[in-house]
Amino acid sequence: MIKFLNSLSKEELKGKKVFLRVDFNVSIEKNNGKQSIDIFKIEAVKKTINFLINAEARIALVSHITAIDSFETIISEINNVLDCDIFFVPKEFGIESASLLDTHQIVLLDNIRFHKEEAENEASFAATLAAGFDIYVNDAFAVSHRKHASISAITKYLPSYAGQLMFSELEALNSVLNKPVLGKVLVLGGAKATTKIPVIKNFLDKAEYILVGGVLANTFLAARGISIGASLIDNKELVKSVFGNEKIILPVDVALGDQAKETRTIVKVGDTVEDTQSALDIGPETIEKFITILKNASIVIWNGPMGMFEYPNFINGTKAIADSVVKTGFSLVGGGETIAALRSINRLNDISYISTGGGAMLMFLAGDKLAGLTALGYYD
Ligand code: ADP
Ligand code: MG
């Protein structure tokens, strides 16, 4: 059985050394040599950190990061966001960090993926990580589909709990999975069909409609033998496994662009597309069709932009869908680029629940078991 952190009282946590797995794998933009970090994932664990600080627990934060090698250059920004004074532990120190909590209330270990044993889910590495701690807390939902030492193997060595963010993620995702089919719409776009087809399969009996845009839609069209020129596509064979279902709504027109993304031409699906052109957004008729469905929806789950929104010529579809999604009773959104797109058009604050999980969220929505949740006893 999974145990949640908030089942522990202040008295039980006082003075305890907590190994807190978080996801600080933030995206970083570099402008004129200055780094600016996306603080969304850091803010998301504030609740858990404050809960532990209030209980006078002592905390070692552990995360990986891929955009840069080390947390060293962004520790001051992390401190600002969390309003804390976190002591940074360079990798030279090693991974046995519990003794540092005798003199510091909160520390951050450097990038855990410096150590290859992390991704190998190595047992002795996990045991060393856990040494000297009293409890383990997983608040890194977005990494919980990974069978890594600080997510999976470590739970064998410490009493293990799910944090507040994990609680919110599970509650939001379960609620959309379990709500009645009528009025529930799944919107999928973006790239990477391989991670999205399992979600479509699971939602065939859970949603009223599944609206498809982006590279995913191109892949469906290509698999049907429709002319799509130089459009990006993913695995055609995979999409064939969900062919013919009436709930899946594909574009009826698309916006084509040249390689430089400077031209924008609308064509009906089925019309000939030159080899120099690719479908980079859904077209106006498709937008109308999708919006008509979204108007009657009470719950929308959305992952993946409708087009290459990074180019002004191809943001229309994503923007129109966003404007419609925010009007539904409950909207749940996840995925790095989907969040970035919504932020760029000022619609992110109007979404009911923003998941920190991209791959993890898709896997959960597909009904697959996540290694990190298995380790916490969620499926027992
Ligand atoms: P998320 O990060 O939200 O899960 P994905 O990573 O699956 O989404 O896909 C996002 C990317 O898909 C965006 O960078 C966007 O430019 C791209 N994309 C969407 N539609 C198209 C298209 N028709 N052609 C090429 N790229 C597309
Ligand atoms: Mg992405």
Q: Could you characterize the architecture of this molecule?
A:
The chain has 380 residues and is of the alpha/beta class. It contains 15 helices and 17 strands. The chain has helices at residues 10-13, 40-43, 46-54, 75-82, 116-119, 123-130, 164-178, 193-203, 214-223, 236-240, 284-295, 316-325, 336-344, 359-365, 371-375, and strands at 17-21, 28-31, 34-37, 58-62, 87-89, 106-109, 135-138, 160-162, 184-188, 209-212, 248-249, 253-257, 265-268, 278-282, 299-303, 330-334, 353-354. The strands form 4 sheets. It has a 6-stranded parallel sheet. α12 (316-325) links the parallel β15 and β16. The longest helix is centred in the middle third of the chain and has 15 residues, at 164-178. It is elongated, with a radius of gyration of 22 Å. It starts with 9 loop residues before the first helix and ends in a 5-residue tail after the last helix. The mean pLDDT is 96. Bound molecules: adenosine-5'-diphosphate (ADP) and magnesium ion (MG). Magnesium ion binds at residues 335-337, 358.
What would the keywords be for this entry?
alpha/beta, six-stranded parallel sheet, 15 helices, elongated, binds adenosine-5'-diphosphate, binds magnesium ion
Strand order of the largest sheet: 5-6-4-1-7-8
Strand portion: 15-25%
Total beta strand runs: 17
User: In angstroms, what separates the terminal alpha carbons?
Assistant: 5 Å
Helix content: 25-40%
Shape: elongated
Task: Summarize the structure in short.
The protein has about 375 residues and is an alpha/beta fold. It has helices at about 10-15, 40-45, 45-55, 75-80, 115-120, 125-130, 165-180, 195-205, 215-225, 235-240, 285-295, 315-325, 335-345, 360-365, 370-375; strands spanning about 15-20, 30, 35, 60, 85-90, 105-110, 135-140, 160, 185-190, 210, 250, 255, 265-270, 280, 300-305, 330-335, 355. The protein is elongated.
